[in-house]
From TrEMBL:
Keyword terms, alphabetized: Hydrolase, Lipid degradation, Lipid metabolism
InterPro entries in alphabetical order: AB_hydrolase_fold, DAG_Lipase-Related
Protein name, entry field: Uncharacterized protein
Origin superkingdom: Eukaryota
Amino acid sequence: MGHHRRRPEINHGTVLREEIDDILHFARYAEVVYTPEEINMIYSDRLHFHSNDNGIYKSPFLIVHDVDTDSIVIAIRGTYSAADVLVDLKFDVMPLSIPELEGEEEEHLAHSGFMHTANNIVGDIRRLNILGPLLNDPSSEFYGCSLVVTGHSWELEWLLWLRIFFAMIFRPRVVMRLNLQVV
């Protein structure tokens, strides 16, 4: 039996006011990643990490504590530089493993440029051991916080991949939310 792709179902469901408020709340983090000079000024007391690395398969991101929701937020900058445009234009796809969907016949693919960028961000976070001490150590003031991954719509695939990756590492202690904004 040959592999075939199912057409994605389009959900025309209602967007709840709470969901809109949630998206708007976390949008500020996605926006500030575009202005690195403001990050320390605005979030210096809650900032846990900021990378301004930008290049092919490298995108600036920050990790900050959101006091209002008691969440650790990973905000990733969207397309801004020439290097980002080159990554966006890499139209190859690569397999995306989603453990929650194993056993389905449908093949999951992801934009290879976004996946390479996501792998680099995950590599930085793991190499620097940023999230483990914050979220897994019972003596940490952030133990039990939820983890929010946010960014802009172009990064949907690699934000999703990051979410899956972190869910596998920090399950079940961390509540995951994915917030995407079109700016």
